[in-house]
Each structure stands twice: as C-alpha cells, then as structure tokens.
Design goal:
The protein is mostly beta strands. InterPro entries: Pectin_lyas_fold, Pectin_lyase_fold/virulence.
Amino acid sequence: MTTWSTKFLCLVLVGILTLLSAHTNAIDPIRFSISTSAEEVSVNEEFEIKIKADLLNIPANTVYVFETARAFRLKVIFPDGFQQTGGSYHDFIEGELSGSKPTAFYTLRGKFVSAERAGVFQLLRSHKSANSASDFIEVDRLSFGMSEGVQEGSSNARIALAGKISYVPYLSMAELRSITDTATTVFITDPARAGIFKHNPSSTKADDGALTIVASGKRYERVFSGPVNVEWFGVVGDGATDHTATLQKMLDRADISSIYFPKPAVSYRIKNLNMRSNKTLTLEEGTVVEGFGTLGLEERMIMMYNVQNVSIKGNNVVFKDQKAKYTSGEQRHIFIMLGVKNVTIEGIAANNSGGDGFYIGSSPTQKFSENVKLINISADNNRRQGLSIISGKNIEVISPVFSNTNGTAPSAGIDIEPNYPDEFLEGIRITNPITKNNIGAGIVILIDDFKGTNRVVDIAITNHIDDGSFYGAYISRATGAITGTITFQNPIWKNNKANGFCASNYSSSACAVQINDPTVIDCNNAGSTHALFGSAMLVYREASAIGDANIGNVHIVRPKVYDTRSVKKMVSAFAFEDVSKKGTVKNCSLIDPAVLEGLDALKYVHMAVVDNFALSDRHEKLTFDIAQANRLLTYGFFKKVFHNATSTGLRTISLNGLPPNYPAITFEVRTGQILRLIPLINDTILPISATKGKYIQSNVVGSKITLRKIATNTWQVDGMVGTWTVQP
C-alpha cells in the first residue's frame, strides 16, 4: 500500500493573469486568491475555503483585455472526491470591483467523501457575461495531498490542504534585486515601470531597468507586445527634465523598433534626436514634446538622415521649440528628412522653430527623399517655412495646415524649391492644404535651378485654401527652359495682402503652370492702386529683373473672382505684363472666366505686350455693352467683345495705341445705331481701309468684325460679317 505526504506550507496563493494585446502590456486589474485556514481534515469532515478578489492599483496607461475588466464571473473546478455542502460561492458567481468597493469575498464549504492521493482546486475567471460556453482562465489554485504515514484509501486518512505551486510575487525593482527569489515570473510594482517580468535563463542582456532586470544572477525580461513605453526607461513629461540622452539610447537600440509616448503631465523636453531606420514612434493624443531653444545654427530637433521605414504618428501632438530665442539663422528645423525613404508623419504639429516645421531634401549620397507621407500635420509660427520640399520623389502631403510663418524670407506656408540642379521634384502631391496668415506666400514655387537640365517637374496641388498670407500662391525665378507641369486644382485664395496668385519672372519656356477653377476673394488688402499689384491674378516681370527672353506659360481656366468688401480694393481681375520691356508675355491662357463680381467692369483684364495668348469667354464675362458712352481702348480695358445693344445713338470706340500681338477683339452691332471704330491717325485697318486714320462703321444689326493688331500701325481684319463702311 502506497503512502504519500507533503509538508504543510501556509501560503496565500497568488494568481495573476498575463495577457498580451497587439499594442501594449495587458494585465488583469484584479488579483484573485483561493485559500483555507484548515491544515488537515478527515474524510467527511467539513471545512471552509475562502475566495478573495482584490482590485489592484495598476498604472493608468495599462490596457486591459477583458470585457469590462473590473467585472468577472468565477468558477471552481473541484478535485475528485470533493463535495460542496454550502457557502456563498456558486458556479458563475459574478462581481464587479471599483474604487469604493475594491474587495470581494466568497466562501465555499464542503468535504472530501473519499481519500484522494493528490489534487487541486482550480479557481477560474472570465468576463461578466460568461457562461458555460465561454473561455475561462485559471487565476489561482489550492493543492492538497495525503498526510505522511497514512495509507491510501484508509477510512481515517488525513488530507493536507496545502502544497507548492507556481506563484507571482509583487515586488519593486529594488526588492527584486535585494532578495533571492525562486519565482520564474514577477510583477514589478514601480510606478510607471510596472509590468510582468519573466526569468530567461538564456538571456545575456544587460540590466537596463526597463526591459531587463538582473537579480541574484538571474535575468528577468519584461513580458510585453507592441511598443516600448518611454516611461519604462524613466522618461517623464514633467516639462523640465532633459531626456535627450535616454531617448537617443532607445532609438539606437536595434531591439527596440516601436516606442510609445504616453501623454505627459506637462511636456517631454529634448534638445535634438537622430532617428534610426525601422522605427515607429506613437504618441498619445495631446502629447507635447518641447525643445530648449538651444539648437546650434545647423542643428535640428528631429534629424532623419539616409534612414528608411520610419513612422511618427499621433493625434493632436505638438513638437515645438522656443523660436523667440533664435534671432538669427534659418536652419533650426523641427523635422528634417534628408535622403530618406518610406517615412510617414501623421497627426503631428511642428511649431515655433528657428527654421522650418518640416523639411524634405537630399543628402550627399541620396539626392532625393522618396515615398514620404505627411498626413494631417501642421506648422505654426516658424521662423522660415511651415514646410520646405527641396528634393523628392513621390511626396504626399495630405490635409496639412501651415500658419503664421514669420521671421526670415521666404516666410511661406509651403516652399517648393530645389537647392541644386541634381535634385528632383517628381510626384509631388499636396492635397487639401490650408495656409493662413503667413508673412510670405501660402505656397511658393521656385525652380530656377532646374533650367537647362533634364529634370522633369511634376507638382500637383489640389484644393489649396489660403487665407490672409501675402500671396495665396507665388511662382517665381524660372529663367530658362524647364520641362514638366505645375498644376493647381480648385484653389481658393482669399484676403491676401497682395495678389491671390502671382507668377513673377517666370519663363515662357519653363514648365506649364495650369490653374484650374481658381477662386480669388478680397485680395489686395494692402490697397495698391496699380493695375498689376492690385489684381487678383498676376503674370509679370518686374522692371529690373534679369531672365529669359519672354515670360508666361501660365494658364488660367474657369476662374472666379469676388470683391465682397464695401470699399472695393481689387483694381483688376487678371493682369499680364512684362514691365521690364525685355520681351513679351507669351504662351498664356485665360479660359472662360466664370464669375467676376464686385470689380470695375472696365478693368477686368489688364494686358500689355502678349504673344500666343489663348482666350475664350463662354460665360461672356469679357463681353461689354458700351451703352451711352464712347470708349477708348487701353491696356487695362481689354474685352473680347464690344457691342452697342443698349446704345441710343452713334457711339465710337477709339482704337488707341495697343501693341502688336494684342489679343483679337470683336465688335458687334446689336441695335440699329452706328458703331464707329476709329484708329489712330497713322494706323490702318487692312484690308478694308488702307488709308491711315480712316474709321469704319456699321449700323446693320448682326454685323460684326474681329480686329487684331499685327504691327505698330496696322490692324488686320480676322473676320467680318455684315456691312461695314469706310470713312469717305
């Protein structure tokens, strides 16, 4: 006959459930125990088992995986030979703990009806709605065995209600390091560093106090899945402590690929960090990361140099420096990406820098950044730019906001501008950008470094809204041949100090600038009275500019222009002029203006010397009834069609000294009154009036004539309908 015994161990048996989620270390917020005060009982002798649930003080950033983690249902698996006789416990008993009710007790009374060699009572828990089909997890157990010297099956057998089981002690790091513990798993209770650590006999990692703890020669490694929490390394957002060194060490470690920043009490303080490849930074909503305003002239807060596969994401997260401390320089950026690949930044603001909020460019060994996505980012009150795109391929900027740039030129919301001829601007896609109140333009594009190269510019900007910047968009300094396209689709430029759109010294041989369906509202807040600088959209070259022979290649399609102010400030809707007189405005288009409201109808379009100018007016916004006044054609009084529909008598239009290649103009007789066209004294109208200074006229309804200035003193008839007579 075999006998079996064990020494009694008076233990309160502690069980803890460790669960792993996809994103963070997850533990059960309740500690369950099952115990008894009875040491030995006889067969058929009743005794009581106690079940206890304690709500733990778990750090607030721990994520639980149970459905309503503080609620539960319990089940006890009885060993063979045990029979319940009473107590408050029953299968699937449920409870819920809270700060006001942190503990729950249950009792289970019963007896052994036969002597068993050994066994356990298993305490299981599940969620609050569990039933017999649900999954339950063991959270504690109570072991038993026969007392020493007693024969198995004997009627007077004594059963010892105790035994050794695995347990999880709750210790601080200091306590773990100071004692010799036999546990294979421990729960570290240090604030902000709490979590499960498991002994790994094969580990050789150093004790970092965060992921690895060395105690009594044993290495315990944190059990977690997902990102590494910066608080585990002692990083606290108290708004004062400099954590640059600690965070850089985390970034430098190859075994840390994902880092999590919980929302700080104030802010995380850093000077500058160097990002490494294959890193993911996730910042809790509302997190603030703040510099000290101590960057050197060429230092940046977050440097990405020749790295790849980087993700920095958050929601309403702010990185900021102390701009007021930088009274010179322009390179102290918040985020800089040089020669990077596969980088995503989402939900991040970059504010108050001594340079740019975001900068995308090249490195000496990688002449472009590639596959960069900036999503829902913003930049406010930066010294030079909100965003600079210097060299890139496949750059996506989606729904950004760039505001209040001021300090040093260009002071733009977005600046797209290569530094060298060997850089790239390919696949640049900017969607739904908002720029506002920038001292410079909302968007600046300067591509002169590409002239004469084989670079192909490919820039598309969709749904741009600018409110209150100096220009809505400004394109300048292209002084030679450049291939490619720059497209604006559905922009809205409003309340600009100067023009809504301005192309300055932009070569007619440079890549086409296509502006589709633009809207300009209440620009020229500076109040210029000049036809050029008071216009909604301007293509020009300043008097002193040096550049290509001709300017132009700007195409405006279906524009809408509004001046809604009680005191109107727009002088003209569209202006085209080479003020330097070095050449002409060439290869431009003005197609079907859709709305021109609140402007002087006599000054919609200002044009000087133009060549190959495409013009259409499907909505007849450039059709003008001369009514009861005689008219004088000037640069600032261009109309595609003049007619006399409401005239009640003879009306004259003087064909003043417009330049050659001025767009063709059509004159129509719509009422039976004389419409007379008078050239200058030395001008002819060929072929119908070869004599200088002779007018032509008609009063036959339906008659119309189209004239085009082909030389200094020559008008040419491009088309004629009806009857026109020449002055005798």
